[in-house]
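Methods — Computational structure assignment.
A single polypeptide chain was analysed. Its primary sequence is given first, followed by the predicted tertiary structure written as structure tokens.
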Amino acid sequence: MRQIFLDTETTGLSADNGDRIIEIGCVELVNRKLTGNNKHIYLNPGRDSHEEALKVHGITTEFLKDKPKFGAVVDDLLEYLQGAEIIIHNAAFDVGFLNKELELVGRPLFKEFVASVTDTLVMAKEMFPGKRNSLNALCDRLGVDNSGRVLHGALLDAELLADVYINLTRGQDALLIDMASTENTGPRMVQVDLARIELPVLAANEQEVAGHEDVLGQIDKASGGKTIWRLAV
């Protein structure tokens, strides 16, 4: 499964009122493993950023004046995103801006190019109702190091979001076997006579059982009630 974590920076808050994308950052995971096949683009929006937006991202008009327009990079960007699950924090904002940029160059809506869009803000609100669920708040809550996030940056935020998502979905990448470490060494087989071994059975105590059920419940909630063990009941 190919997943791409995407973030944008913009000149302001309203695509409908003429604000534009100035930066796009993408981080790729395949089978829940970082591939390093990331994409980072700065764009010349043809206008200045609002003062408040500039305080957030620090990307000046002077810096962007020699960067490409969106129309010059759209084909490469869409080829990169094609068919992937796109994961965004507060997806309505970024997708709204991407739709406007695509409209301005005569292209269909963003959803036509990707398999699906997953909003981690929606996930977080379901898992942590009533709590702050900004990217910074989730980093703090889930133990993701965001000490380098002095200003917002699309690629850095996409990288942080990938870490947050893995933690939100309980680090399931740890369950995968890293085949790269063994593919060149060949199989190693050791025969052990198990008949002479008595394995102790350690029963979980009440606290451990309760903790296990809590973790299963959170995973089930994050999946929208689609986990196999719940469906089988």
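Note: The mean pLDDT is 86.
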